[in-house]
Write a structure and sequence with these properties.
The structure holds two protein chains of two kinds. Chain A is an alpha+beta fold. Chain A contains 14 helices and ten strands. The chains are: A alpha+beta, B alpha/beta.
Amino acid sequence: MVLASIALRNLVQARRRTLLLSTAIGLVTTLLVLLLSISAGISDNLVQSATTLSSGHVVVAGFYKPSPTLGAPLVTDASKVRAIVEAKTPGLERVVARGRGWGKIVGPGGSVQASLSGVTLSDEPGFADTLQLAPRSAYLEGGGPEVVGDARRIGEPDALILFASHARRLEVDVGDLVTIVTEQTDGRSNTLDVTVVAIARDMGMLSSWSAIIDEPSLKKLYSLKGDTTGALWVYLDDIAESERTMTSLRTTLAQEGYALMDYQPVPFWMKFEVVGGEDWTGQKLDLTTWADEVSFLMYTVVAFDIVTVFISSILLIIIAIGISNTMFNTVRERTREIGTMRAIGLRRRQVLWLFMLEAIFLGLFATTCGAGLGAVLALALDAAAIPVPIEAMQAFLLSDTIPFSVRPLALSGSVAFLTTCTALAALWPSYRAALLRPIVALGYTA
Amino acid sequence: MKPAVSLQKVVKDYPLGKVTVRALHGVSLDIQPGEFTAIAGPSGSGKTTILNMIGCMDVPSSGSVALDGTETSQLSDAQLTRLRLDRIGFIFQSFNLINVLDVRQNVEFPLLLQGKHSARERAERVSRMVERVGLAKHAKQRPNELSGGQRQRVAIARALVTNPAIVLADEPTANLDSHTGHEIIELMREMNEKDHTTFIFSTHDPRVMECAHRVVKVADGVLA
């Protein structure tokens, strides 16, 4: 207790030094919190865009092969599979059926290839709320900040929701007609004119090749029967249960007599070649998690984390040298005091603790302030919705604005990590102080 | 009765570059409990070295040092530290107070290190000592707000608060004017008479020597 009191008083006594060091440590913490917030923001966007455009938390999909060489990503007798999933999934929030397709969308300005996600609005009444519509300025030259269109109109026949980047390229606005061209498994093409009912804000790479169509239109394009769908998206109360639920559903569906494909943690469109090369026919189910369906995008989070670690490490090394140097100076300045305390009866271990406590208090104070500032800045910058003007960067960040997401664990982790680093940087000078013999320390002249 | 301090043929060599300097040449000295002893001699004569040996802050190159019959040269650093904390009080020439602590906290410091007294007991002891050295009105002041004499009084209170068997004072009046120096020596003698604590202090001031019961003279590392 007395050591803590002395350590605190010494920090207050050396106000200027404490303030300078605190500022440096605090700024590094702020930067780390900001970088972690962006990383968390990208991660959140990844989950958001994945679970809006590509998958539920768990995906029950599959391939139907009428002949050994032809295969399509379909689930036949979908209502029967759905009933089993609904009955046997603990922590289930909802199951929705989504059609899957791939086609060319042709508009006045040209054409784009896009993955078509078939939505049944009666199946997903809250679907419209998951999309943010784009202002006209995002896709029309000379467009204003007004938002037009209504995502709920996806329940109407022959309706399409485009993302802003596609709308820009196709030069279309809400209410315009575009043509969708799809290719059947037997090589024939189908076309359908659809109305653009809404234009959504871009969601990074996933939205750059996605469009949302009403499910009956998608079935029309592929000439599919009523009880066939592309995939069943399973939403859980807790996304963290995805892996466990997927494993348990695999066992359940196998017990119910369904043939299952071997588990491969990649999106369905990477499996066409493998499926085409196998000689089975009929239906096989394929279960994956949301993370599997966007595994090819995980690199964005990993890449940003690497950048975060790299920048933080460099700053940390600089700060650690600064702290270490300052602590050596402190020990030098207080050598006689150390000698006095050692003479009176302070043990070596207590001397070590005295200086370590100073570093720990300094670290705690500075990192807490820094983390607080970082959190406030991250929230403010998120609210400011800073636009990302470069399309490649939008794809990388999975958003058209810089995403910030403040996580309490990241804040407490930053404080704990940087305080530990501060303490470690002070360990060597503190140890040297503890090794001082009282007679040598007392005779020291600064 | 065992002597409070017993030095037997103590030799102390200090390496100085490639040569070795001998600071003490086989010093033998017994000091009885309750003595008020001055170790006198010119600068460099070996006074401080003798005090360092007695205070367990240095070990002899040869010979032995015993406190109350306990041989100190074989003790570990931790044991010597505990011995200093429990048995010895130190008064330094430059006062050596902890600047960030106030008068009361400086005096309480060794009691906290001992860790064997309740908060109430510590408070009582500290109040008593601060009162005895005449600093009750300055109890909340920091060392840099005190005069030299007042600082040395704090040092005396800190040295005596643990009821040590021996108090070592290295030139306690050297940084004080003669009037204040005399007051400090008188205070030390008063403590010695009331508590029967053994006081050993070094000095080269003849007026201070006059106050001692016994004067041990040192010159060139030997007792004169």
